Sequence to fold (310 residues):
Amino acid sequence: MTISLPVLSARRSSSRQRLTRPWRLVLLALPLLLAPRGGSAQGAAATWGEVARILQTPAVATGGYQRFNFPRRDVTMRMGDVTVSPMLALGGWAGFSGEPSDAMLMGDLVVTRDELQPVLAELARQEIGVTSIHNHLAGESPSITYIHFHGEGDAVTLARRLDRAVALTKAPRPVTSSAPPPVTIDTALVHRTMGVTGRASGAVSQLAFQLVPGTVTMHGKVLVPALAYGSPVNIQMVDATRAVATGDFAVGEHHVDPVVRALATNGITATAVHSHLVGESPRIYYIHFWADGALPEVLKGLRAAVDAGR
Fold:
């Protein structure tokens, strides 16, 4: 920044000579004009800290957005003879993209049958839009419903509104973290077969894919891919020779049938095909699945589905 100051003649630069009022104001303002501007980043960090305090769960910066998780550790869900880890299929969450003062909120609430109506009523009262209500699995016990939601505006205000809905579930809060259990799944095999690295805790490995190319918009705004249409794949070891997996593949319309066929060909059941968004362009479809078998065979089928979705 260049600022021009008045040139004073020797005759007028005497210590007794006083600058006129306008120039005194310019000089007083110089420290503010020349100071480094780091307040924006600090303000954003403070905002996400406040959102974390309201939602009672830590903020995780990932994939270009701020994520807040509400795992349903209070629910013991079974698929047949398998007890499903919360990391595998019970991960409620909320994500914020954009600036704190003009944020986009999306997420997924995991609710039991008796929680569904009160939560939906509260979301309506709080003016948080519901973009989808459905199952992700088939035959689970107890029956679980997933509510996808969307909102736009000030992040702190949105967090306060969402908190009132989350409070009507039995999701444990505040969300506390403990030392992760030792990893018991062969992550080297998982990462090598699937072609990506992920994270693992105990018997569960979590991966993420991006199968939709180009830009996706909704309500005239560009969506952050990882927030709105990522493809999570979660794998859990049941015992030394058996694995189960679930998640969803987010794909364009021309890839729906190839992905479902790839799953079926490899003995993996597509449990739902539906939307998570409203008004997005191009249209995105989400294919949920359940796999059960030896880990190498499960991975082989999942990789075939990933390749079919590209």
User: Anything to note?
Assistant: The CA atoms of residues 242 and 294 lie 5 Å apart.
